[in-house]
Amino acid sequence: MRFLKISTSILLTILSTVLLVLQSCSPNNVTLQNNYTKYFDDAALTGSFGLFDNGSGEFYIYNLAQFKDSSYTPASTFEIVNALVGIETGRIVDEKMMLSVDSAGPIRMDSAFKQTSVPYFVEVARRIGKDTMQHWLDSLQYGSKQMGTAVDSFWLNNTLTVRPDEQLGLVKKLYFGQLPFQKRTQEMVKMLMLQTANANYKLSYKTGLSYKQNGNAVVWVIGWIEENKHPYFFVLQTEGAASGDIKNASMSLLNKILKEQGFFEGKR
Questions:
Q1: Tell me, what's the pLDDT at 213?
Q2: N or C: which end of the chain has fewer CB within 10 A?
Q3: Which pLDDT value is given to residue 111?
Q4: Which residues have a Cβ under 8 Å from the Cβ of 143 and sit 6 or more positions away?
Q5: Torsion region of 130: left, alpha or beta (phi above 0 gives left; psi -120 to 50 gives alpha)
């Protein structure tokens, strides 16, 4: 009888897990935005986009297969994780911490984050150390969790890769303080994400630029937009010729998509 009870318990657990997976993968809360092809084509870019309405639980996605199945190096969007680990471990004291990392002279942590100062966060990663960084990659289950041999370049050289849907999960958990870090740590990085704030909306994001082995440039823009204290989380990933100004083109593309979704007027 004991064996039967254990078997039934295991069976119920398996069934519950299967049901949960099926519910999370349900297409009922996903709207495919195929009309966004025009924005990508106009910018001469390929890629994917995802927007999650936290209030309704609705996803709005362009290029679903790429959004959930393709991985890319996170580039400077990894500065979100780098900053979180640095603050949590005390390698970054606070957002005012100064470091001299290149010929330009000392730079504050908050400025380095907003300006995407790669040398600053290379130094932070070195101070964190390989074992500690690997621990946090594993704890976060971030992307492929691969570092290779160097602690100061793995997020830039295609060693570590991450999917767009994983990036969306990261910023959503950061916003709600659900990552495995202290509240102070998450609030500080959340504050650093804020780029624009006015009477109609608040826009918070982090960008990243890297290059694939085929020479193409890849750009990330990940974050959230708030209107009437309601958050919407987004991830834009683009790919295009390295010769163009792909970063500005990607930001323009993002603004067009968000505008078509009805943002920027404070009416969402």
A1: 85
A2: N
A3: 96
A4: 71, 74, 137, 160, 161, 162, 163, 166
A5: alpha
Question: Structurally, how many domains does the chain consist of?
Answer: 1
Return the axis-axis angle of helices 118-128 and 130-140, rounded to nearest 10°.
100
Q: Is 142 within the bounds of a domain?
A: yes
- Which candidate, 25, 4, 6, places its Cα nearest to that of 165? 25
- The burial class, CB within 10 Å (0-12 / 13-18 / 19+), for 17 is exposed
pTM score: 0.88
Cβ atoms 82, 72 nearer than 8 A: no
Q: Which domain holds residue 146?
A: 29-260
Q: In CATH, what number is assigned to the domain containing residue 106?
A: 3.40.710.10
Asked whether residue 3 is assigned to any structural domain, the reply reads no
The mean pLDDT of 64-90, rounded to a whole number, is 97
Distance, in Å, from the CA atom of 209 to the CA atom of 91, rounded to the nearest integer, reads 25
Q: 166 in the Ramachandran plot: left (φ > 0), alpha (ψ -120 to 50) or beta?
A: alpha
211 forms beta bridges with 217
Helices and strands: H and E segment counts in the chain? 10, 9
pLDDT for the residue 27:
60
Residue 156 falls within a domain, yes or no?
Answer: yes
Q: What is the pLDDT of residues 5-47, one digit of tens each?
A: 444 444 444 444 444 433 444 567 999 999 999 999 999 999 9
CA dist 225 and 164 (Å) reads: 17
User: Which distant-in-sequence residues (6+ apart) come within 8 Å of 48 by Cβ?
Assistant: 61, 62, 63, 64, 66, 67, 70, 164, 235, 236, 237
What distance in Å separates the CA atoms of residue 236 and residue 214, rounded to the nearest whole number?
Answer: 21
- The angle that helices 183-193 and 79-89 make with each other, rounded to 10 degrees, is 140
**163, 204, 206, 233 from 171: Cα distances, Å:** 13, 10, 10, 7
